[in-house]
Write a structure and sequence with these properties.
alpha+beta; Creatine Amidinohydrolase, Chain A, domain 1; Creatine Amidinohydrolase; 2 domains; five-stranded mixed sheet; three-stranded antiparallel sheet; protease; metal-binding; metalloaminopeptidase activity
Length: 485
């Protein structure tokens, strides 16, 4: 990884470009500095079209404006975070900012200024790297180091919002008067500029509104979710084809195989891939992925591709590594499948959000009583939550730009709410028998099964966005055989 240069004497009116303590070049000669200012072609992009979701983001800003009339609203994208010394983590803009703008640039800030009966939106961004002061080649975030930024004019065209220089924003906000709200937790500098103008309670109301606004997806979002799921299906197929290589190495081969599909077809994975083989399947968020992959055991693969617009799939399949379920594995798998079928059937407009969870948990409780693992009757088991020793988690969650989307929504609008067309959620029951659980027969220990699909609530019921991946045990076996053969 190369290291940037630094000028000898930066202009006193500008912030000095940071110098590496152990950089090989102590400075820049006047002749080189002058040479680097000229001889560059005009690269302004003049034939840009607005981003595909521009109409949707405009409608979202209008809804936000209507909810908070007369108030200045500040929504930051966030800043780069250091990974190690002078390298940064890959940047992912705040969901609130990306949802309202379509932009994903670090340091960006959307500001809605009260104007008449509505608001005037401005997107504040870093402009093109300055060639006059050498920033474009001397600064670690200059264009020759990390790539070209859009000009403010280009950004205005792309996002349908007038763009201004974000370096001037903090000062302007310090001088601002009138009520202000900011989405907290993303940009400390912007928050510091507003520290005497905002309150935690008012800011939380803004955050909650933006979370609940995403509960019902528009047509663009549904299309992106389907795109994410389709890529995810292909990623699962990729994994099945290389299970022999995973057996020769580790779970990391599975993780890496899926990641390749996510990076080729999307932006990234939507969350850390869970490639849990054998007893690791009983660890709900197993992301170390450093264990052995053994024939005769199960692989629980929980993974999702994130699209370039941040919408993610979230799908789980539990697969027999050698392509065939043992009798006990099939018994447990089929019980989870039956529970998932009951859960999916309960997803429909007008149903309570909790209904699909309750339906799936009832089936699993019945199975546990039937197998003699817990004392019935089933109503007693459910009332006391005794099945949770082996079911552990809730049966699903909202899905969208966050894998656990809309998490800041009010309880009455989410968990205690009612399903509406356009909502998208996961249905993912599971049974997990820990390797050290002495309350179950030995053959159960270390077996974990989860089946998860992404379900869209429709006008007349639901649609399984991930239906292209087989779920029934015999279909899973046939699917794996076709891919391996």
């Amino acid at each position: 990884m190369a290291e940037e240069l630094i000028p000898e004497t930066p202009d006193e009116s500008e912030e000095p470009i940071k110098q590496r303590k152990n950089g090989l070049y102590p400075g820049v000669s006047d002749e080189l500095a002058e040479n680097m200012k000229s001889g560059w072609a005009d690269t302004e992009l003049r034939d840009l079209e607005p981003v595909p979701q521009a109409a949707e983001t405009a409608a979202r800003r209008a809804a936000l404006s209507a909810r908070f009339p007369g108030e200045r609203l500040v929504i930051p994208a966030g800043n780069l975070k250091t990974r190690s010394n002078d390298t940064e983590y890959a940047f992912r803009a705040s969901v609130e900012y990306a949802y309202l703008t379509g932009n994903q640039t670090e340091d960006g800030v959307l500001v809605l200024e009260p104007q008449g009966e509505g608001h005037e939106a401005t997107i504040y961004l870093l402009p093109r790297s300055d060639r006059e002061n050498g920033e474009f080649w001397l600064d670690g975030q200059g264009e020759l180091w990390v790539g070209r930024r859009h000009s403010l004019t280009e950004a205005g065209t792309l996002y349908g919002i007038p763009a201004s220089d974000v370096r001037e924003l903090a000062g302007a906000l310090r001088e601002a008067t009138g009520p202000v709200r900011v989405v907290r937790g993303y940009d400390a500098g912007i928050e510091a500029a507003l520290t005497d103008k905002v309150t935690a309670e008012r800011d939380e109301e803004l955050r909650v509104f933006l979370s609940e606004a995403r509960l019902v997806k528009d047509d663009f979002e549904i299309g992106e979710l389907q795109k994410a799921v389709d890529s995810t299906v292909r990623g699962f197929e990729d994994v099945v084809k290389v299970l022999d290589k995973a057996e020769a190495t580790s779970e990391r081969y599975i993780e890496g195989t899926f990641f390749l599909r996510a990076r080729v077809e999307g932006n990234d994975v939507g969350y850390g891939t869970i490639a849990a083989a054998g007893p690791h399947a009983c660890t709900l968020h197993w992301v170390r992925n450093d264990g052995a992959v053994r024939s005769g055991e199960l692989l629980l693969l929980d993974a999702g591709v994130e699209t370039h617009t941040y919408y993610t799939a979230d799908v789980t399949r539990t697969l027999p590594i050698n392509g065939r379920f043992s009798d006990l594995q099939r018994k447990i798998y089929d019980a989870v499948y039956e529970a998932q079928e009951a859960g999916i059937a309960a997803v429909k407009p007008g149903a309570k959000y909790r209904d699909f969870h309750d339906a799936a948990q009832r089936v699993l409780a019945e199975k546990l009583v039937e197998w003699g693992l817990v004392e019935g009757p089933v109503e007693r088991v459910l009332e006391l939550g005794l099945q949770r020793r082996w079911t552990l988690h809730g049966t699903g969650h909202m899905l969208g730009m966050d894998v656990h989307d809309c998490a800041a929504a009010r309880v009455e609008a989410y968990v205690d709410g009612v399903l509406e067309p356009g909502m998208c959620l996961t249905v993912e029951p599971g049974l997990y028998f820990q390797a050290d659980d002495l309350t179950v027969p030995e053959e159960y220990r270390g077996v974990g099964v989860r089946i998860e699909d992404d379900i869209l609530v429709t006008e007349d019921g639901n649609r399984n966005l991930s239906a292209a991946l087989p779920r029934r045990s015999d279909e899973v076996e046939a699917w794996m055989a076709s891919l391996k053969g």
